[in-house]
Amino acid sequence: QVQLVQSGAEMKKPGASVKVSCKASGYTFSDYGITWVRQAPGQGLQWVGWISASNGVRKYAQKFQDRVTMTTDISTSTAYMEVRSLRSDDTAVYYCARDDRYSAAWFADYWGQGTQVSVSS
Amino acid sequence: EIVLTQSPATLSLSPGERATLSCRASQSVDYLSWYQVRPGQAPRLLIYAASRRATGIPARFSGSGSGTDFTLTISSLEPEDFAVYYCLHRRFGQGTRLEIK
Which residue of A has its CA nearest to B39? Predict the structure, then answer.
């Protein structure tokens, strides 16, 4: 069965970086992409970006373009999202989800359990 | 960047009633998906490519529309359907909260 397992909760200080991992199993990793979404406390969903595990093409939401890097490691079927220069308003649950390999946010059908990232001085 | 506007912000209905949720894009988009979010849970894909039901989603959920105007319809509400719904095309709408009347 398809599963996405994310890394554990992180507590960071403002200005630091965080790297969240998302390990996929149950399907051929390179046949799909990975979308990343976050939800801040009491807020709606925010689409952060997408990466194709097939060809490495990335699409980032404009808001995150300067601070986010998404990568994949096909040998371990793992996707990563790094967020730099963290601010308190980056405090959120971050989700990864399986997506189409050619089109960003085409479908996000299987989701990880979420990773809480807390930013506080 | 495309902006998605969902309406209404809140929809109050009773079980068994029909729900119609709207998502309007600021410019024409070629695909759109819908997600359900329950408190404390990961989002759940309902509809993709505007009208294709995701695997395992009950037939009471349907999607329609094209270009700038899209609709998610729940034909007869079940108690578990009361949640927040979002549309997505590389950016989420602000969501529609479906609450029990």
Answer: A42
Residue A107 to residue B95, Cβ atoms within 8 A: no
Q: Tens digits of per-residue pLDDT, B14-32?
A: 999 999 999 999 999 999 9
Residue A86: both structure tokens together: 């963290």
Which structure tokens are listed for A68? 């986010």
**pLDDT score recorded for residue B64:** 97
Buried b (16+ CB within 10 A) or exposed e, B54-89: beebeeebbbebeebebbbebeebeeebbbbbbbbb
**pLDDT score for B1:** 84
Cβ–Cβ under 8 Å, residues B25 and B32: yes
What are the structure tokens assigned to A30, written together? Answer: 């390179």
The Cα–Cα gap between A23 and A75 comes to 11
Between A and B, how many CB-CB pairs are < 8 A?
61
Residues in chain A whose beta carbon is closer than 8 A to a beta carbon of chain B?
37, 39, 44-47, 50, 59, 61-62, 95, 97, 103-109, 111-114
Rounded to whole angstroms, how far apart are CA atoms A7 and A25? 14
Estimate to the nearest angstrom the gap between the alpha carbon of A17 and the chain centroid: 14
Residues 12-71 of B with CB under 8 A from A: 31, 33, 35, 37, 42-45, 48-49, 54-55
